Amino acid sequence: MPIAADRLDEAEEWMRLLLVPNLPVPLALRAVQTFGGVAEALSAPLKELAREVGGRMAEAMRAVGEEDGVMGLVER
Fold it and tell me: Structure pTM?
């Protein structure tokens, strides 16, 4: 049974979030809850994101959110 493309996209978004260096899972989950989803958390305005997870983590999350797919993370 093939996996739907939207499920793969969602899985990739979660991988991006969970691969943010030094991002504690509770902060990641807080950001997802605050912004309404993983994609929304990764693309949230930097100032708003920093209020939730701190400046360094916000910058790291934004950098991962801008990567070209999970392979961009793996190739680092």
Answer: 0.76
Nearest to 42 by CA among 12, 71, 74, 3: 12
What torsion, rounded to 10 degrees, do the Cα atoms 34, 39, 4, 75 define?
-130
- CA torsion sign for 5, 18, 20, 28 is positive
Dist CA 14 CA 26 (whole Å): 14
The residues, ordered by sequence, that sit 6+ positions from 51 with a Cβ below 8 Å of its Cβ are: none
Measure the CA–CA gap between 62 and 68, rounded to whole angstroms: 12
29-39 pLDDT per residue, tens: 999 999 999 99
Rounded distance between C-alpha atoms, residue 47 and residue 8, angstroms:
29
